[in-house]
Design a protein that fits this description.
alpha/beta; FAD/NAD(P)-binding domain; eight-stranded mixed sheet; 26 helices; 19 strands; binds flavin-adenine dinucleotide
Amino acid sequence: MSKESDRRLGMNRAIARRDFLQGVAVGVTFGSLAPELAEAAEQEAQNAAGYYPPARLGMRGSHPGSFEAAHELRDGDFWNSATSLIDTGETYDLVVVGGGISGLSAAWFYRAAKPGAKILIIENHDDFGGHAKRNEFHINGRMELINGGTYEIGSPYPYSKVAGGLLKSLGIDAARLSKECDDPLVYGDLKYGVFFDRETFGADRLVTLAPSDWEKPKRAAWKSFLAEAPLGDPVRRSILKIETGTENYYPGLDSDQKKDRLWRISYKDYLLNVVKADPAVMPLYLHLTDELWGCGIDAVSALDCWGMGHPGFAGLGLTPGGPSLKRMGYTPAGYSTAGGSENFHFPDGNASIARLLVRALIPDSIPGHDARDVVTARADYSKLDRPDNDVRIRLNNLVVRARNGGKGVEVAYTQSHGGGKVWRVRAHDCVLANWNTTIPYLVPELPAAQKAALHSLVKCPLVYTNVALRNWTSFHRLGIGRVYAPGSWHTGVNLSPAVNIGSYRSARSPEEPIVIRMMRAPAKPGLSEYDQNRAGRVDLLQTTFETFERNIRDQLARTLEPGGFDPARDIEGIAVNRWPHGYAPEYNSLWDRDFDADHGPNLIARKRFGRIAIANSDSGYAAYTDCAIDQAHRAVGELLNV
Ligand SMILES: Cc1cc2nc3c(=O)[nH]c(=O)nc-3n(C[C@H](O)[C@H](O)[C@H](O)COP(=O)(O)OP(=O)(O)OC[C@H]3O[C@@H](n4cnc5c(N)ncnc54)[C@H](O)[C@@H]3O)c2cc1C
């Protein structure tokens, strides 16, 4: 891009981004301290005045400085360059590795079973919560919250008694909060937009469709939508057939037999070879599954796409539920009312659950007393790792080893960005609630079969980019609330869903600031799901913030300029939450046909090893909050019952 184009996009404009606390530099210098104090301070940056990671912008999620030592460990370089092993002399009942919802829940369950237990949680990011990350923007005196990762309490499974019970103990009654707080029409009756980009479709064009026509397709509405789209007539006919057709493509087969066929082929194969759509429809449909699966429809079964409500199945007469859904212990019962809710969400997503857990574990670290006031409460990070706490949370440190020995476990950790120093603590028990695929590097003594199973639990990379805008008048003028952009850098753009809770108020009028969310899955079509994930992770870690920013500005300009949007004027801040290790793996019938609920690799992977137990949503093979909680409960149970 030229300098002129960069200037037009506002690349030179000072906005709140990389490593700035909304204008205040985050960097802390320790040069003026005595060496031993400097070392302690350096190790515990979280104690520095003004330390407040939710307000950091720029590259978030797996932010720079959080994983460098992990990659040295993976590459076999870490221990060669380790300079010193410092025994802290600290001993705990339990050390938890990973401060995501699973790790925090493990601490909660352990304390519930053993009141007064001393627990240390070690987390390699600068904030707790893991994927349940809070992004906090301050624009014109208003606090705008949004999730950097985990968003909904809803889950396709009924919440277990354990997971639902934990939410209840934290004061979260999702069904009640849903009634109290939700106001889905607050932005007005906005439509869905599809942005056709010129590189993929030959022309930049935004075409809209009412949500009801999207969800319950009507032929007339689709005809007028397609008439405006920059597509040729054969492609339009194919799309109309997919969206509104009622043909039975498998005559003579009953519902189960049809599902069995759909379970074995990708949705892409189904559209091209069963529906016999024009191959030129693919650029429109390929990314439909990005948001939920982190990869395109070439790597997701047609049956799962039917289950998610994607089009092309209306004439098949399929009965609800299906073999794929049952395979890994899924139930076809749909969303549960016992704990989860697909309707209610906190303004910062499930970061509020993480914050409620932290408040329960370290009461004076976050003021307030219920699930409403936690939303606007400011956490005091200097209270998380005080020596007199029963529960301590140590941020910015990466566990590099967990070793059974004597009557417990020795846990070694280093600063996440590297630096060579290693610290050591001891504990009676240890829960590894971190990404399971990395566990063999921490516990090389594990049996080979278990290590292989752990390595196979490849997570799916994805990005939630949050962009603060000074107002949303362009969306309002265009009459859109969300955009599917199948050929663009981010394939989804939407206004942050509104919610009022406690003293928090979402934007109401289009003149008010708002945060929008953009979604990108760096998948590589044509490979198996897990190879797409591996390739996407490399891609993600190599992409600079500058590249992200330029693409964000360019995409928003091209989509919203007809509504008066000016990227140089209207963008106030950007947080790119990149998750190279995102969703936990889930059963995919195209690649995982050999195992089922009793033989999944997660079952081999999560076996207790001495006094080390394994949690995280990976160990339940499902990328959901209830799963992260259930797995924590199981892991703690394994330690306390032996
Ligand atoms: C973008 C995104 C959106 C999502 N949306 C939803 C949603 O709407 N609803 C839902 O239910 N689920 C959602 N999920 C799934 C989410 O993964 C789970 O719900 C849940 O938050 C996972 O919690 P966890 O504790 O198992 O894992 P994580 O949140 O990943 O926590 C693991 C923690 O371990 C830390 N760690 C890793 N290695 C080490 C080490 N060696 N030393 C110390 N710490 C380490 C990591 O940094 C991380 O903080 C989403 C996930 C992503 C990525």
